[in-house]
Amino acid sequence: MDQVTSDAARLASTLDVVLERLERARPFSKQSLQRPVLDVLARLIAVPDGLAPVYARAERMDRAGLFKGSDWDVPNALLPQLTCRTLEGDDRLLAALETASLMRFLAVATGEAQHPVLQRDYARHFLTQVLALNLPRFFEFSDEASREKGEHTAVAARILRLIAERIGLRDVLGVMVAEIWRILEQRPVQMGPVKEMITQIAVALNRQGSEPGSERLGAERLVSALFGPTAETLDDPGLTAYLARLDHMDDAALSREAMGFARSMHDTGLVSDYHVGFLLWALDYPDRPLVPETLGLGSTGLDCWRHYRGLIEDLIRAGVTPSTPQALYGLAMMMERGVLHSPPIPPALRRVLTIDLAPAVRDRLALGFGAQPTPETHLVSGILEVIGLPLGVGQGANPTCQSARAISMWALNDPDYLLHLVVQAAEAETVLMNFEGTPIQSADLPAGLAGFGPIDADPVSVLLVPHLDRIYAEMGRICAVRPGDPHRWINPEFHGWWVGRECSVAVDVATGMLDAYDVFVARFYQSYHPGYNGDRPLIHPQPAGIAFTDSTGTFIGWHAITILRVAPGRSGEIRVYFYNPNNDSGQDWGHGVNVTTGGNGERHGEGSLEFEHFLSRLYLFHDQPHQPERIKSVETAAVNRVRSMAVESWAQEKATPLQPARQL
What we know:
By secondary structure, this protein is of the alpha+beta class. It has helices spanning 3-24, 30-45, 51-56, 58-64, 83-87, 92-109, 120-133, 135-139, 144-149, 151-167, 173-185, 192-208, 214-227, 239-246, 251-268, 273-282, 291-295, 299-307, 309-319, 326-337, 345-353, 359-369, 375-388, 401-413, 415-428, 459-479, 487-495, 517-528, 611-615, 636-647, and strands spanning 432-435, 438-441, 502-505, 542-549, 555-568, 574-579, 607-610, 618-623.
């Protein structure tokens, strides 16, 4: 018996003891004996194997009087939208009570328990609503609020998975399918959680039969993208059997297969293992070059193929395997971006193919991604994905938005510099940067917020973030004695020359209070809004800071993003399009400020908001010195609208110091 199992068994025995005391207690003394039960429950649910014994005792806890005197004593009056908020709250005993209540609902929904007022159909419907309302937690996509809650979020995710395993996904299939498509539209680099969910949906579809429905059609499209994207893979024959079929196909059939794979990949962003097998087989096909068709290349990508075919074939052999299938999509998008035509990129990629990993780097990559295929393969695959999909880089469940943003920005705007840093970190276990002429070596610095770095991120981030986080922290220490926000000096030195040297901040760093906010608002209009800046477009992506708020408009913390462009949306309204390193840009920031990732002219990986909505959550931005003759004055009404939105959300305590700034 391993340690986790033994801990769960020991705590379950203790739970039986305190439950027996509660059962024997007279009605007037039960409330005094509820706390020991909740205390044991809180410790038990924190153990990975601890939910099963709680579920097994759900009916007993209810009959013993665990819910007496609380809102949970009337289960029909509970609201599903409050469930995860309680689970992730700071009150561990309240979270334990919520967990016990959910296990009671689950026992009734599965027919393993009965309740005098809770009917089986109602219990199942309630749990279905809980799952549907908390899909981001179920998918394990982190945001700023969930990272703040840490372990509470992990426990909530385990509870949701247990519920889904017991009642199935049928009732929430439509909602889940819509959520997966929404996430896929953003083209994240890390596809593991999405692919796992599609696999679960495939199992659910197989169990529930073939009834029609639009949600089923959407689900089947997702399943087919992974397990049967072409005519010859519809029956999911297995990779070995499929490769044997290829030897008996003529050129027309092979071309259809290649185009089928490419169409599925570009439609969904998902790469099937069959697609990888076909591409590797096509590299050696003698009579007809199938690789461009398999990658689904347009004119730019085809031009890259013609000029750099040898390099591209070497990259495929080095980084695209059945264990790293998404590298195929990364490669295709890298070619479509045309970055190979930048003179430093081909030799830089050649350098990566001959990289000599330091032992510690090799061990870390193996820890994060497995020893097979090799750490070198994982690193090459990560490079292809990050450069191909720079807006898909995510920070994982780590407080490293600055580093994730930098990696994304370099991949988008300066990929040869990113490759330079990768080689440094991989071979020398250090990264060298300069701050105002002073060299900073990451190897000489203590660990920052990231500790030894994330392992729930892409290979490039796993390699670089520990170094970048240390350098960023050191730049912060250098600037600590300077007045004002340190990002004024850090961002241009850390990210690149293209960052605007002027910096506007909405709050006074020393007090946390709003500082010349009306001037801040007007300045952003005149810097970024085409109607006020002489219709000058944004040329390079610019780092910015937002005051992140949750769906109630409550301030969570400061968060780093990248402003990508400002342009009219589909309805003609001016919108700010931005990159958010938090893994999922589509979020409700409260009071009607809802970030969208599709439907308003967004490109893959972008989130967007109407200009004033975005500005109402902005607290720091960079720009260049203004040319007065080109700018237009900003109406007082516009400034007042933005101020009102800020004050009713993150800045409502502006008369007193706001919370200390912290990186999310």
